[in-house]
Amino acid sequence: MKNIGLMEINDAVPEVDTGLLTGWLNRADLARELTLTVDTLQRRKTRRMGPPCVRVGRKVLYRMEAVRDWLREQEARKAGVSRARRRTTLRGAGMAPITPSGTIPFTALIAEAQRELDLRRQFYWSRVRAGKMRQDEADKRIALMAAIVKRLTVTAAL
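^ thats the sequence. predicted structure below, dont judge the formating
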C-alpha cells in the first residue's frame, strides 16, 4: 500500500466553484465592507433597519445588489428633507405671526402647543403599535405634554 500525504489528497480532489454564491456576502464580510461590527449588523436586522438578508441554515447572506440599493436609499433619505423640518414646514403656514416686538400672542402659543400635543400623540402611538416604544413610556410622554398645554391654558386664564 502506498502512503498518500495530505498535499496529494488536496491535489486529487479539486475544489469546484459552482458560482452559486457569487454576488452574495456573509455578515462578517459585509460588516468589514461597511466598517461596522457583526453585532451592529445583527441589531439592525433585528430592528429591520439594515440591508435585506437571507438566512440559509445558520448563515446570513446579503445580496450585493440589494445592499447597494439599500445604501442608495439611505443616501436619498439623508439628502431629502428631514422629518422634523418637513413637519415644521407644513405647520409653518398655520403658525401665529410674530409681533413687531418679537413676541407671539399667548393664544397662538396655546394653539401651537395643542397641535404639538396632537402630533406627538399620533407619533408615540404609531411607535407603540410598531413595537418600538413601550405603552407606559408613551403615556408618560403624552401626559407631560398635556400638562404643559394645561399649564399654558390656566396661565392664559389669569
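The CA atoms of residues 20 and 84 lie 45 Å apart.
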